[in-house]
Amino acid sequence: MFCRVGPRSTLGPGTKLVSHVCVLGRTTLGTGNTVWPFATLGADPQDLKFKGEDSELVIGDHNDIRENVTIHKGTKNDEGVTRVGDHNLIMAYAHLGHDCVVGSHTIISNAVQFAGHVHLADHAIVGGATACHHFVTIGQYAYVGGMTRIVSDVPPFMIAEGNPSRIRGVNAIGLKRHGFSPDDEARLKHAWKLLFKKASENEGGASSTALDELESLYAGDWMVKALLDAIRRSAQGTHGRYREGLRKDNRFTNPVR
User: Fold this and answer.
1) 188 — phi, psi (to 5°)?
2) Cβ within 8 Å of residue 48, ≥6 positions away
């Protein structure tokens, strides 16, 4: 009722637009999604570099997209696609900017703001009123506390909180909820102590010695490997954002509308 669906948009079976929803541009929604009033999906990016190029928004299955959510389509400065996976809860007033990639089984809380090109991995949770810098990556099973300012990548399995954000510990509650064992939690807590707690006490970042030690100690452990890989990528990136170095545009060029 009172919805607008553009001629290039596709809604899958069982997808429900409650009322007053706009689905614009080349937007695809899969099966069994629910979109609540005053959400706008697939609008043009809020990016001065956008010149009307053909791009799209692709949303998977069984997502719950609440009131006043905005999700914009992609741009040529990335892959041209904004993507949302399956079984996500995107709460009221959240904004997902152009070229964002959201995995599956995530929770994006009320009034969360994602700038362009943000990546959110599977099973991550972002607390309310959090703001994420463009090109930030938030790893799998990570938890971001409410009202946090995220300007660098958040490693998987960790808790980030504060302004500026800091890694506060292992997302133990999230791990338990998803069936990880006490041994899994113990290995990650040991890794956190070496990588973040001691580094914080010494007023430094994660050392290459700690990375190498953990890699040797937990060889073959996929969780520790994912954590170490994420930290190494971030350290090699720009301002702790590894995807910043992949951008296709010149960030020093002044965009003119």
Assistant:
1) -70, -35
2) 255, 256, 257
Residue 44 DSSP code: P
Using CA atoms, how far residue 215 sits from 91, 182, 209, in Å, is 38, 20, 10
- H/E stretch holding 161 reads strand 158-162
Give the phi and the psi of residue 192 in degrees, each rounded to 5: -60, -45
Q: Does the model's pTM come out above 0.90? A: yes
Burial class (CB within 10 angstroms; exposed 0-12, middle 13-18, buried 19+) of 175:
buried
Q: How far apart are CA 175 and CA 143, in angstroms?
A: 10
Residues annotated as part of the active site: 98-99, 116
Q: How far apart are CA 116 and CA 241, in angstroms?
A: 13
pLDDT tens sequence for the chain (257 residues) = 899 999 999 999 999 999 999 999 999 999 999 999 999 999 999 999 999 999 999 999 999 999 999 999 999 999 999 999 999 999 999 999 999 999 999 999 999 999 999 999 999 999 999 999 999 999 999 999 999 999 999 999 999 999 989 999 999 999 999 999 999 999 999 999 999 976 555 455 668 899 999 999 999 999 999 999 999 999 999 999 999 999 999 889 998 87
The CA dihedral of 188, 194, 199, 205, to the nearest 10 degrees, is -70
> Could you tell me which of 257, 253, 254, 247 has the C-alpha nearest to residue 75?
247
Neighbours of 225 (CB within 10 A): 14
